[in-house]
Amino acid sequence: MFPDEFEYERPETVDEAVDLLVDHPEAEILAGGHSLLPTMKSGLASPDLLVDIGHIDAMQGIDHADGTVSVGALTNYATVDDSPVMRENVTVFAETAHAVGDVQVRNRGTVGGNLAHADPASDLPAAALAADATMVLQGPDGERRVDADDFFLGMYATDVAEDELLTRIEFPARPEATGAYAKKPSPSSGYAMVGVAVSMTVDAGRVEDVGVAANGIMDHGVRLDPVEDALAGTNPDGETVATAATNAANDLDEMMMMDDLQASAEFRAQLLETYAERAITDAATGTGVVAAGPS
Amino acid sequence: MGAESESGSGVQSVDPDDVDAADILGSAIERREDPALLTGDAEYTDDIELPGMVHMTIKRSRHAHARIENIDTSEAEAMDGVIEVFTAADIEAPGNLPTGWLLDSLEQVDHPILAEDRVRYQGDALAVVVAEERYIAHDATDRIDVDYDRLGAVTEPSEALADDAPAVHDDASGNVAFDWDIGDAEKTDAAFDDADHVVDLDLENQLLIPNAMEPRAAVAEYNPSNDELAVHMTSQNPHLHRLLMSGVIDHPEHKLQVRAPDVGGGFGSKIHHYADEALVALAAKRHERPVKWTATRTETYLTDAQGRGHDTHAEMALSDDGDILGFRVDTAANLGAYLSTFAPAVPTYLYGTLLSGQYDIPAIYCSVTGAFTNVPPVDAYRGAGRPEASFVVERMIHRAAKEVGMDPAEFRRRNFVEEFPYQTQVAVEYDSGDYEKTLDRALDLLDYDELRERQEAARAEGKYVGVGLSAYIEACGLAPSELAGELGAQAGLWESGLVRFHPSGKVTAYCGTSGHGQGHDTTYAQIVANELGVDYEDVEVVEGDTDEIPQGMGTYGSRSAAVGGSALVKSSQKLVEKAKRIAAHQLEAAPEDIEFENGDFHVAGAPDRSMHIAEIATQAYLAHDMPDDMEPGLEATSFYDPDNFVFPFGLHAAVVEVDPDTGEIDIERYVAVDDVGNQINPKIVEGQIHGGVAQGIGQALYEGAEYDDNGQLVTGSMQDYTVPKAEHIPSMETDSTCTPSPVNPLGVKGVGEAGTIAAPQAVVNAVCDALDVDQIGMPMKAERVWRAANAATDGGEH
Amino acid sequence: MTRDISLTVNGTEHELSVEPRALLISVLRDELDYTGPNVGCESSMCGACTVHLDGEAVKSCTVLAVQADGCDVTTVEGLATDGEFHPIQQGFQEEHGLQCGYCTPGMMMTATELLDRNPDPSEEEIREALEGNLCRCTGYQNIVRAVENAAEKMQQEPAVADGGGD
Questions:
Q1: What pTM does this model have?
Q2: What fold does the segment set C3-78 form as a domain?
């Protein structure tokens, strides 16, 4: 319940923050604190220095210009969930932000914190993949851009270096796309046993563009290429969707799947198919409903 | 008093100001406790702040079973702000926590408040830190270095009783804490010999963690000049805690005050005497400063007494016609690492005696072996033994009905007890009941026949709909004390109540129970106002403080209304009798000519010659004109010891749809028809049913303490152990019938545990019914259900 | 090393010096004596510590006091105005939405934010909105009714709705 002592710095700009990280590579970055503080309270983390980036105004807010939607890393889930710009142009990400945690968590937790923490059971990584997001990182040598597909490396592991900060996430604006996220939450923690995010553009009854990705199944968010391939160019009716969903685990190594108290790998693979089907169906019908079973 | 209006819509509360005094008993008035709780004015233990107060933390074992080689406290002691660190070696006489219920075969083991050379569960207390600040105390705790020599651990009762299991206590051979049985083994064997059918199931009733929202806490203050020690603590039974603690820490009982401020739920977990509160008291005496300790949630997961923990093999003998001929139950019960306060009673007298359920079963035999294991002590948790019994009975009934090809509702009806009082084959005598009435009401609410048709139709469409019934019985208000003593109780089970008129005519009622969310202040005021004929607002209720209340036994086992409420009735009646004699004297009439109605005493046939009881109170304290030989004053104390238990009953039903692809269970409907006798406040009764059912559904679907092979708790936080959320619990349809208990003057039966006792098997039976399988273990997590569904469709389950 | 911060709690400004590691709930309860919000867990699950931070429901056990520097905090003590219960308090009283009361302050703070955002929520929406607040006593049914009751009151008397909450 009680964090160990630490030094505390509160930079006002990205450059100041990066300078601190250069000088203190072991420092932990505090954004909303909803991943970090629980681990500090349980004694799992005991950083010597916290760099509180919460007051860096440049990392806040949502901009839409030139076909790109840019979301500051400090933007909280509730803001994304409520944003008309996000709902219109990056539907899958807004839908997924709504599925994170609970109201209180959504009011404090930040999208940058979520993505940079890369918990395999968190929700946003799949949405970032499905929406073809680009992560913008700032380090001592300036800015660097990383595709979501190259960003998630493993359990709690991303491409962010110790002296870098994830400052914003950029998405191609896709007002014509529908999006959905279907999640089987752990009944205790609310984290995803399995969660599937889908962004889909259908033109004249044919799938023109589709992104499908999953959380909870592997040690990091993964794109489900075989499902995307099976859907591309089809008319996404019930049967097509169900068949496509059966491919969900095709490229995934069952030996490497998450297997814990909540669910075995075998059961997760089963859930993956069902939740892929639900998410694709929701996207195809444009309902965007976040489906979540009661147990 | 009694039944609700429209099922599902719930009981409507009323403002007490809108209720006529004569109607106060049985009215669903809003609770008087609520304003403080709704504004932040409540005082829970951790809210207490005293001048000069210091903070205490406890270093706990990280291993489930180990010898302690060394405890190095030097680094912690050297920290700024740390006042003292002490271990068992530093205190002269480390107390032992006693067991309050003995059985003939019980193997009593020492339970020191600080482990000396061996720890037996993860969380066992090793050392105490006293520091100026809370955060510093926790820092220091982390810097205590303990050398462990680990030993093998065992967490399941059936494993613990196996030949090669590690010994939890050197003195308890084979980890057997006791062997106990009830019923007639030979008669039961004979019934099985004559049976047309025998069904059997292996049933596990998993370990549960109570999870009261308020963690346990204590604040102790000691005055060296008069040796008075006050302990403010999260207690369901302050007098019992005072008695036990006085022995544990060797402090005279009359100089020890135990007070329960507002208590944030208990569900049994705040009955027991733990090491922690005794350590707080010791620390306050050592330093002569107020000391506060508040458990973290992690500590409550590791140390609160857990509940259930049964491995059972049950068999039922049946005739072709669908009569139950015999019932045989063999249970291994998990007692944890030590014997907690009432632990031996729970899997024996609170379990075996309820195995007749609502049924006329001619032969029953139950044997129970209590097992020591390396989990926290296991003791009473909401229901305590009775949920385990009802689960075994109702799961077996479901299985038996299927075996003889009868509808489960009709199978139950055929075997119901019909005549009362009814002597079971397992010692207890049921006071009253009408089991068909709750069954019929529930079937009516369910539209049962239509439901069965819909189930058929759904199955044809590949949907898995199921209906599960649970006809439960519970026993509340364990009594009388003489019987409890014969069965092994080391305490009486009466309750005390003091009712005191003030000279102005206002009333204070004191009761030895100790509410922690049940609304006793409201219900007791309803009872006393009704008995005395005074305004509800003129009655104040005091509970939970050994310095204010004469004596008491506390709140658990759904006993407060039946036993505590009855004590207040008896005291009120004594006051009315005394007041009647004063009235007769002052009205110049014979006492037998005085009539009492709604607070007024009047001379029979002369209604204008009257005095109100409040006026008489004034006269009793003025004492200017009293009958000869009568003492002044108007107050009375009673110790009420009931003649028998009371036996609430009811019928709960769950309607579920199961998704075989995901194992997800949707509880479409949950219907609860309960008969708890007369209802003092139907809104509070409804709330108790709702909460109890939610905990029962929690057990059926979500909850369970899980340990790894080393005895480490892997469900040690709310992230890992599912305390049901709002979206996990269905909207319940509640209704009630009313069969007053003849045992007590209120005709009440108790309601605190009914829902928890009834619900688990209603849900399990429904899921078994949906999937047409015989058995699914609890908690019915999605994966478990998915596997059961697939085994069933593969034909593997039969 | 401590840090100076200012917090406005229920309209009263407090200047204080806190350790960076001090949680907002610790400062509210132990330093400023706002003991309405409670601590029920340390894993950010139970919601008993919920307060409003600049008008939004947050779990004050998962916010450092230094992060709240300069913010407006509303606790349960700030719900009633001039001795008049907020509709959510009335709803909980009338519908028996509480038993032991320990979760209630946090539960009501989450509920008031819900009603700010959605004045007429369905039962499903209420249950979803309360997923971050655990109650062990009530089975939630009367909490749902309490929120519905408050919603009704606030729609009838919009003026009252502005009285408390934030």
A1: 0.96
A2: Ubiquitin-like (UB roll) (3.10.20)
